[in-house]
C-alpha cells in the first residue's frame, strides 16, 4: 500500500466511524465495530436500499451479507468509506476472523477515499470496475473523458486478482493445444469451491488534488512481480493486461508479493 | 457477451454484443464450435455492437485466429468502435489479425 500513500504523511491512528448494521448478526457487527473503533447502528433493510431515515454523517461503513449491483449502488449513494460484503456463511464462527478488513489501509483519515471489499464469488461477473468508476465520477474525482482508460486499467487489475490471484489459475494453460477449454473447465471448478469463492477482493480508492490511487488486493498466492510484463509479443495469448495498465496509468506498483496492485493516475 | 450468427455461402458472420472479457471463456468454446462447423471461406466477427473488450478477450481473438487458420478459413474482425477499437490498437492486434475499421 506504500505507493497509494506516498503523497500523505503516515497517520498511526485508525479512523473512527460508525457501522451500519444491515442484516449482519449482532455479535459480528459488534466485533467489526470493535475492530474499527466504531459504533453500531441498527438499520432496517429497506431503509438501506432507499436511503430513507439514515443520519447522513453516521453512515461511513456499510456491511451486507450478499452484494449485487443494485445493493452496491444503493450503498455507494450513502457515500460510505467502507463497503463490505461479508458473504454467505457470515454468521459462522470463523467468518468474523476473515481478513477482509481495511484497517491497515485506513490509517490516514486526512485523505478522502472509499474501500470496497467483496467475495470473489460476487466480484466475478459483477463488473465492479464499472461501479467503482461510476462512483469516482459521481464524487467528482474522475473526469468523464478520462474514465475509459481508468476503467480498463482497473478492470485488468481486478481480472488478474480474481483469475490469477483468488482463483489461482495460470494463463500458461491457455498456451497448450485446446488449452482454452481446459482453462474454462478449471475456472468453473474453482468457482464451485466455496473455500475459493470466499476469498476477498478489495478495491481501495484514495485521491488528493494531484493523483487518484486505486489499490486492488486479493488473497491468492501472489506471483513473482519481476515477471509482470511491460511489453508482450503481439501473438501472446496473455500478459496484455499489465501492458495496458503500464501504458494507460501514470504509475503501476505491485506489492505484497503480487497480491496488491496499485494504479495511480495523475489528475 | 452475447452473439448471434448469420451464414451466407461465402461467410459465417458472428455478431457480438455487450462485453467480451475474462468471464466469457465458455462463450469462446461456443464460437470455436461455429468455426469447426463452418463450410464458408470467411469467418467474420462483427464488433460494431460490442461495448468493451479486455486483454482476455483479445487473447480469445487470437485463439479464434489460430482455429480459423488451421482450417484455411479467413478471419476478419469488423468495425470495432470506441473502447473496443482503443484496446485493439493498444495491443497492435492489427499486425496479425485482419481488421476492417
From TrEMBL, chain A:
Gene3D superfamilies: Histidine kinase-like ATPase, C-terminal domain. InterPro entries: HATPase_C_sf (IPR036890), HATPase_dom (IPR003594). Keywords: ATP-binding, Nucleotide-binding. The keyword tRNA processing does not apply. CDD domains: HATPase_RsbW-like. The keyword 4Fe-4S does not apply. GO terms for molecular function: ATP binding. Residues 134-264 form the Histidine kinase/HSP90-like ATPase domain. This is ATP-binding protein. The lineage of its organism: Bacteria, Pseudomonadati, Pseudomonadota, Alphaproteobacteria, Rhodospirillales.
UniProtKB/TrEMBL annotation, chain B:
Coiled coil: none annotated. Residues 16-101 form the STAS domain. It holds the Pfam family STAS. It comes from the Bacteria. CDD domains: STAS_anti-anti-sigma_factors. PANTHER family: ANTI-SIGMA FACTOR ANTAGONIST TM_1081-RELATED-RELATED. Belongs to the anti-sigma-factor antagonist family. This is Anti-sigma factor antagonist.
Amino acid at each position: 500500500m506504500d505507493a497509494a500513500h506516498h503523497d500523505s504523511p503516515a497517520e498511526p491512528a485508525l479512523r473512527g466511524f460508525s457501522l451500519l448494521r444491515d442484516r449482519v448478526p449482532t455479535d459480528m457487527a459488534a466485533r467489526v465495530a470493535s475492530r474499527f473503533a466504531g459504533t453500531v447502528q441498527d438499520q432496517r433493510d429497506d431503509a438501506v436500499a432507499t436511503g430513507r431515515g439514515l443520519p447522513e454523517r453516521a453512515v461511513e461503513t456499510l456491511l451486507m451479507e450478499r452484494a449485487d449491483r443494485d445493493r452496491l449502488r444503493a450503498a455507494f449513494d450513502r457515500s460510505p468509506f467502507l463497503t463490505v460484503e461479508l458473504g454467505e456463511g457470515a454468521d459462522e464462527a470463523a467468518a468474523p476472523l476473515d481478513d477482509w478488513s481495511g484497517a491497515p489501509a485506513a490509517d490516514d483519515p486526512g485523505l478522502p477515499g472509499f474501500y470496497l471489499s467483496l467475495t470473489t464469488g460476487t466480484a466475478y461477473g459483477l463488473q465492479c470496475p464499472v461501479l467503482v468508476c461510476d462512483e469516482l465520477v459521481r464524487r467528482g474525482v474522475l473526469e468523464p473523458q478520462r474514465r475509459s482508460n481508468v476503467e480498463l486499467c482497473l478492470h485488468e487489475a481486478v481480472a488478474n486478482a480474481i483469475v490469477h490471484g483468488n482463483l489461482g489459475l495460470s494463463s500458461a494453460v491457455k498456451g497448450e493445444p485446446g488449452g482454452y477449454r481446459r482453462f474454462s473447465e478449471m475456472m468453473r471448478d474453482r468457482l464451485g469451491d466455496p473455500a475459493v469463492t470466499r476469498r476477498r477482493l478489495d478495491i481501495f480508492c484514495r485521491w488528493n488534488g494531484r493523483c487518484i490511487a486505486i489499490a486492488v488486493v486479493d488473497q491468492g498466492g501472489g506471483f513473482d512481480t519481476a515477471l509482470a510484463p511491460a511489453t508482450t509479443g503481439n501473438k501472446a495469448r496473455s500478459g496484455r493486461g499489465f501492458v495496458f495498465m503500464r501504458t494507460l496509468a501514470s504509475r503501476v506498483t505491485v506489492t505484497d508479493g503480487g497480491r496488491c496492485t496499485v494504479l495511480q493516475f495523475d489528475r | 457477451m452475447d452473439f448471434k450468427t448469420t451464414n451466407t455461402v461465402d461467410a459465417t458472420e458472428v455478431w457480438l454484443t455487450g462485453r467480451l472479457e475474462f468471464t466469457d471463456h465458455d462463450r469462446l468454446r461456443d464460437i470455436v464450435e461455429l468455426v469447426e462447423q463452418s463450410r464458408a471461406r470467411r469467418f467474420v466477427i462483427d464488433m460494431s455492437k460490442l461495448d468493451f473488450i479486455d486483454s482476455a478477450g483479445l487473447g480469445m481473438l487470437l485463439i479464434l485466429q489460430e482455429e480459423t487458420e488451421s482450417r484455411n478459413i479467413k478471419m476478419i474482425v469488423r468495425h470495432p468502435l470506441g473502447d473496443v477499437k482503443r484496446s485493439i490498437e493498444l495491443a497492435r492486434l492489427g499486425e496479425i489479425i485482419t481488421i476492417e475499421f
